[in-house]
Amino acid sequence: AVVSTQSGHYGRGKYANTIQLYQHILGYMQRTKQFFQNRSFQAEDINKKNDQMLALLAIASTFCPLRLDESVNIQIKEKHNEKVTRLQHGDMTVYDELFFSGCPKFLSPVVSETSSSPFGSSGPRGLQLQVFKTEVEQQRLIPTLRSFLKLYTSIPISKLAKFLDMHENEVRCCLMAFKHKKEIAKGDGGDQTTLDIDFYVDKDMIHISDTKIARHYGDYYVQQILKLKESNKMIISAALSNTTPVATTPGIV
CA 39, CA 51: separation in Å to the nearest integer? Predict the structure, then answer.
């Protein structure tokens, strides 16, 4: 239910909401996983949901580069380090793979009276994949565009067009798409910083301003405290298990 709910944000392009909520859920699962280790049926389902959220989070963080919590970032690197690099280069096969592994099951809202499906041979899941591919295609040039804009404080559109090997009007369309996707990605919180840069266009000149994403020092210390408590529990339990009772001799105090 959690993955399905957040897939609603995901499908509407609200990647900031998706990232923040998945981070909270993954952090909670990481802290409480020791309570489910002895319950195999629950541990298996929780691990499956964990992998689903990591796959979708890898895609969402490519579209919307928010700063991730350290523990979540480590999990993504352990699971999808190579795939994240390929995502940033626009590898559609990786997008398809992670989308299929992370998305919930899609059901048809209508029942066809004929034997043929109204969604074609691929079914509702294939239709959702086509919609997702359209979104990826719209954002395909945004990472490259962002990487060039981060190098300048101002740059003429003509110069940027030469770098991208595109016509100036096409670059203007890409800049408009960049702004549009940035606003959608913010989600419900309009004051969120969803990208590390911002810009505006004045005639034929692009002006860029850096936006530093604040570090969440409190989250880091909370994670270290939880790790320390877990280590202390392991040390104490190991010490108690190795303690043997001392034999006493009758009559000797």
Answer: 18
Over residues 12-64, the pLDDT tens digits come to 567 777 888 888 888 888 777 777 666 667 778 888 888 888 998 888 888 87
Angle at 146 between CA 143 and CA 148, to 5 degrees: 115
Rounded to whole angstroms, how far apart are CA atoms 129 and 99?
8
Angle at 201 between CA 198 and CA 206, to 5 degrees: 75
CA angle in degrees (0–180, nearest 5) for 192-92-133: 65
Give dist(CA 10, CA 20) in Å, integer. Answer: 12
CA distances in angstroms from 4 to 34, 103, 191, listed in the order given = 25, 8, 26
Q: Which long-range contacts (CB under 8 A, 24 or more apart) does 20-25 make?
A: 20/66, 22/53, 22/56, 22/57, 22/60, 22/72, 23/57, 23/68, 23/69, 23/72, 25/53
pTM score, two decimals? 0.65
